[in-house]
Amino acid sequence: MTIKISIDCMGGDHGPSVTIPAAVSFVNHEPDAELILVGLEAEIGAELKKLNAHNHPRLSIVHATEVVTMDDPLEVALRRKKDSSMRVAVSLIKEGKAQACVSAGNTGALMAVSRYVLKTIPGVDRPAICFPMPNQKDSPTYMLDLGANVDCEPQHLHQFALMGSALVSALEEKTKPTVGLLNIGEEDIKGNEVVKQTAALLRADHERGILNFYGNVEGNDIFEGTTDIVVCDGFVGNVVLKASEGLGRFLKNIVKSEFKSNPINMLGAIIAQGALKSISQRMNPSRYNGASLLGLRGLVFKSHGGEDAFGFEWALKRAFDAAKHDVLAKISTTIAALMPAQEGTAGAESTGVTEPTQQKSA
Amino acid sequence: MTIKISIDCMGGDHGPSVTIPAAVSFVNHEPDAELILVGLEAEIGAELKKLNAHNHPRLSIVHATEVVTMDDPLEVALRRKKDSSMRVAVSLIKEGKAQACVSAGNTGALMAVSRYVLKTIPGVDRPAICFPMPNQKDSPTYMLDLGANVDCEPQHLHQFALMGSALVSALEEKTKPTVGLLNIGEEDIKGNEVVKQTAALLRADHERGILNFYGNVEGNDIFEGTTDIVVCDGFVGNVVLKASEGLGRFLKNIVKSEFKSNPINMLGAIIAQGALKSISQRMNPSRYNGASLLGLRGLVFKSHGGEDAFGFEWALKRAFDAAKHDVLAKISTTIAALMPAQEGTAGAESTGVTEPTQQKSA
């Protein structure tokens, strides 16, 4: 079964010099993948030639004349750059030409464009960003939302829990993945009103057998792997994600600097180079690259803007796996079974940016 | 100049078996310290005897008949256990017999008891928990609030910034420590309404030369040491603190397990044992033990409940340094110069628990 993925090749800090080598490597390793490379044709073509991949049967180019930069305001991405590689790549899903899309571009712009082009799944008020964090158990802790929604109401966190649960049950093949609600204590009385009301909704779902709600979890539980999914608002999630990246880099630097501190330690490092290499790999955030934008009528994945080809390829792999496991249908089915469809709430109004010239789709 | 510190010797997971050895070690290293050991006299006496310190001229015991356990609800700590070691230790500050107090007991109970006994500084609506996080620059990032206030208004975050700034300028002898506001992006338009309004208050202070406001910071900035102080609400702060502890343990385990994975790596570990020991020390959270409860009319420090004697001694050191640098007067002066005193807002009502039998002090 062929899976078609559209790639915004111009996005991220490095553009085609990273996205094209990643695409070529991925398509060579994955015989079921077909990749549509979107962006400035000349630049993409030149990169492909360098890698001797310009005639690859499962790579095609779709030309797009504009590029959304990391600094572009949402309005520019949405209203002015209608022929951006990002928008064209996302639109290929809508047109049925791709099953998933990957971009390393500006997260806010990618969310706004995806939401505008694809709309949300009926029953989902707000899409969320979901990311697999590493943990002690060596199976990821899927955390959402990681920054799409700074203020959340209980029903939003409730929807995040349902979407996360559908994603993990599809991707990790767990029938009843556990859901934890991020809080500042395990007891029911802890936390703010939003968290307490969310817990009540999740408990009700648990009693109805819809969700495997574990209860409140704390910050440390993310890395202990206490639950498969951790639900939080986008403010908290984004801060935790970035703090973890910062702490990881800090600790990695400590390890590096200590082993270089004197000749004896350097000798030890040479002898135990296998251990150090393995530590470096396990602490490498690229292995966890690729966040899902959940709740849209299409699979969109965001790669970290600063990632190299190795990291970008991980994001491609995640998109491929999600399409292969039919994550979209599973999320839609889960939400549809529980929520009354609210056609009116989906779409452009809720991104805070409207585009009057384009027709609104259903 | 002698600094007197009262110690709740019964608090924490281990009680006198940890607090007494820490106290004895600290008093032996610090000739200007005088420690008042509060708790069950027989238990404290027995531990002192074990260490041959029962006649130490700068150690005294104050008997308290009750103990606040880690599981006691706030009401129990506040209303029922009036002769708890925690409450008696805090009261010694109020009575002018100690300049600072240290407890490893339940954080919520310690905050409620301290707030009830000591009251807040005029102009401070809510006390906050402040903790020095390690960073790349090897000078701590002071972060507050870390869990006392789950919902904050802009004026609360504003007060946290002022208190944190006064604390750091006293402790670290920096005249103009930098203040960052934790957010999900550096741009002014990022974040929720509370954060945006707080930024406006902090910018105004900056323009008046009262505060050195850096602007918004992100999660990674905590560990990069971008600013001396990072201000956030207690929900976010608590989650970040616990997530960091969890990630730190996780990464430490990776280092350990890789060096034990085969005989060659083990040999390397033996040769580079100096590096590994140093890594372990630098990754040891005990070095950073001791959180300040800021905004009270007295210096109260909280040690992590699970710490050993080494960690508890760090908390004693922090309390000693704060008293020595007259942190309390500096915070009170800073706040008094900026805020109109609000006598009515301080005290017991705001803890959510009232104690009708005890007279209210000014």
Secondary structure layout:
The structure is a homodimer of 362-residue chains.
Chain A (H helix, E strand, L loop, with lengths): L2 E6 L7 H14 L3 E7 L1 H10 L8 E5 L10 H7 L4 H10 L5 E4 L3 H12 L9 E6 L7 E4 L9 H18 L6 E5 L10 H15 L4 E6 L1 H6 L4 E3 L2 H26 L3 H9 L1 H10 L8 E4 L4 E4 L6 H16 L2 H12 L24
Parallel strand pairs in A: 1-2, 1-4, 2-3, 4-11, 6-9, 7-8, 7-9
Antiparallel strand pairs in A: 5-6, 5-10, 10-11
Family (chains A, B): Belongs to the PlsX family.
Keywords (chains A, B): Acyltransferase, Cytoplasm, Lipid biosynthesis, Lipid metabolism, Phospholipid biosynthesis, Phospholipid metabolism, Transferase
Subunit structure (chains A, B): Homodimer. Probably interacts with PlsY.
Quaternary organization: homodimer
Intertermini distance of chain A: 29 Å
How many strands in all of chain A?
11
CATH topology of the largest domain in chain A: Rossmann fold
Q: Greatest contact pair?
A: A-B, 59 and 59 residues
CATH architecture of the largest domain in chain A: 3-Layer(aba) Sandwich
Structural category of chain A is alpha/beta
The DSSP helix count of chain A reads 13
**How much of the polypeptide of chain A forms β-strand, as a percent range?**
5-15%
The CATH class assignment of the largest domain in chain A is Alpha Beta
Estimated radius of gyration of chain A: 21 Å
Write up this protein.
The structure is a homodimer of 362-residue chains. The first copy, chain A, has 362 residues and is α/β, with parallel strands linked by helices. Chain A folds into two domains: 1-124 and 295-357, Rossmann fold (3-Layer(aba) Sandwich); 128-288, Isopropylmalate Dehydrogenase, CATH 3.40.718. In chain A, 46% of the residues lie in helices and 15% in strands. The first copy, chain A, is built from 13 helices and eleven strands. Chain A has helices spanning 16-29, 41-50, 74-80, 85-94, 107-118, 154-171, 193-207, 219-224, 234-259, 263-271, 273-282, 309-324, 327-338; strands at residues 3-8, 33-39, 59-63, 100-103, 128-133, 141-144, 178-182, 212-217, 229-231, 291-294, 299-302. The first copy, chain A, has an eleven-stranded mixed β-sheet with strand order 3-2-1-4-11-10-5-6-9-7-8, with helices on both faces. Chain A is globular and about 60 Å long. The model of chain A is unreliable at 341-362 (pLDDT under 50).
